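Hypothesis: this fold can be encoded by more than one sequence.
Test: take the structure tokens below, design a sequence, compare later.
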């Protein structure tokens, strides 16, 4: 494994960065984190990209498709904040993260049992399993965010996460294409059952690699108190959140953006399969084209972030994602959508990178996990509502107008980050927009 890890990019630490890990250990952790991401996305992409088609083959309705997004989000609402307070109390977070990661990945095996249920029950059983699966999944994601923010210092993050995401997209999409080919050739439902089982065993390798990341023995000075003081980690109130103006503003803008971003998601799947006739291979091709764009896009957005900052990057990347529903509104074949996926892949690499980096940037160091939990809970509210709103649009208009409405919502979401950056420019009295042209 050490020989494999040497292939990954090395990272240089600025002299001003304070950390209780050595530079060599930080670099090693970053490389292991990249390797962990590869196996993580390999397991995920053997399952998630094909859940909608799997559901439709089980005779799921449009509401079942919407619930595949909304139901897990509802579960997250109930577990996010209580689990964050628990995580904040833990000085060591790796073991806890590993435990909930395993619990989440174990549900891949439970999906194998769905075809054994009565045909009328199968779609709802799928929805229930995916929802319950998100109980450990939401906690694992929250714990990982808190854990990794301590492992990778701020000055490393843009390059480190971009490299991780680039490798994840390359490996994940290549595997998705292979899985799509196999699913269309293997008998139903055996093909899906086989892939769900294989995903679990790949996830076991993922967890073994994650366990190689070294957690610091001593906490940095700025986070030692909140993570070790039990009463402190329970003291976050609405008043505390409102006092953190930058965090609050970012959360509110993100809330609307995620709503606008996710509203057309169930429409995309339904339109691809039911209207344009996409099969598993086509789903893989669309994902492959998206990755092609992202591989180029990540380096562009890393340079953009390092030059202009996260907020400006968020505006210029999010304002462009209206293209996706706009293309769906005026295209009537999968070839056109696949071609545009090259462009949108490059755009979304900036969105994903800047969203996470900005969250870590605006979140207070004290009780960091709890603040992230409040943020994720707010975003989850949008995740609950947006798919249902998207499906409801089809009851009052056709696909074309539904996609147009979704494109307008995404434009408005992008302008929210513009407003946020202008507010920060005014408060700091510094020209955020200098050097853009």
């Amino acid at each position: 494994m050490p020989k494999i890890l040497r292939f990954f990019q090395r990272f240089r630490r600025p002299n001003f960065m304070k950390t209780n890990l050595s530079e060599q250990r930080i670099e090693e952790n970053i490389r292991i984190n990249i390797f962990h991401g590869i196996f993580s996305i390999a397991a995920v992409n053997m399952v998630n990209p094909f859940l909608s088609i799997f559901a439709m083959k089980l005779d799921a309705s449009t509401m079942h498709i919407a619930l595949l997004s909304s139901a897990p989000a509802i579960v997250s609402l109930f577990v996010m904040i209580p689990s964050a307070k628990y995580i904040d109390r833990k000085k060591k977070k790796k073991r806890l993260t590993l435990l909930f990661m395993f619990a989440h990945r174990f549900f891949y095996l439970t999906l194998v049992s769905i075809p054994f249920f009565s045909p009328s029950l199968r779609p709802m059983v799928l929805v229930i399993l995916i929802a319950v699966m998100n109980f450990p999944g939401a906690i694992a994601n929250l714990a990982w965010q808190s854990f990794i923010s301590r492992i990778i210092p701020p000055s490393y993050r843009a390059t480190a996460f971009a490299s991780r995401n680039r490798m994840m997209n390359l490996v994940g999409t290549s595997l998705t294409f292979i899985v799509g080919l196999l699913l269309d050739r293997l008998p139903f439902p055996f093909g899906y059952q086989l892939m769900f089982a294989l995903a679990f065993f790949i996830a076991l390798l993922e967890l073994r690699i994650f366990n190689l990341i070294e957690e610091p023995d001593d906490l940095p000075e700025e986070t030692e108190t909140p993570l070790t003081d039990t009463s402190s980690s329970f003291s976050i109130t609405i008043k505390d959140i409102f006092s953190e103006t930058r965090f609050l503003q970012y959360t509110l803008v993100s809330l609307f953006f995620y709503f606008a971003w996710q509203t057309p998601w169930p429409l995309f799947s339904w339109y691809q399969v039911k209207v344009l006739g996409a099969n598993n291979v086509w789903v893989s091709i669309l994902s492959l084209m998206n990755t092609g764009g992202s591989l180029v896009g990540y380096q562009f957005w890393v340079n953009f972030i390092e030059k202009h900052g996260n907020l400006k990057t968020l505006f210029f990347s999010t304002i462009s994602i209206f293209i996706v529903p706009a293309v769906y509104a005026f295209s009537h074949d999968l070839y056109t959508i696949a071609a545009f996926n090259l462009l949108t892949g490059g755009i979304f690499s900036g969105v994903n990178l800047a969203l996470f980096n900005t969250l870590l940037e605006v979140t207070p160091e004290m009780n960091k996990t709890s603040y992230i939990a409040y943020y994720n809970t707010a975003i989850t509210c949008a995740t609950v509502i947006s798919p249902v709103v998207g499906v409801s649009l089809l009851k009052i208009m056709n696909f074309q107008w539904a996609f147009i409405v979704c494109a307008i919502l995404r434009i408005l979401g992008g302008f929210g980050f513009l407003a946020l950056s202008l507010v920060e420019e005014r408060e700091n009295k510094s020209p955020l927009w200098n050097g853009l042209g």
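The radius of gyration is 21 Å. The chain has 19 helices and no strands.
Hypothesis status: open.
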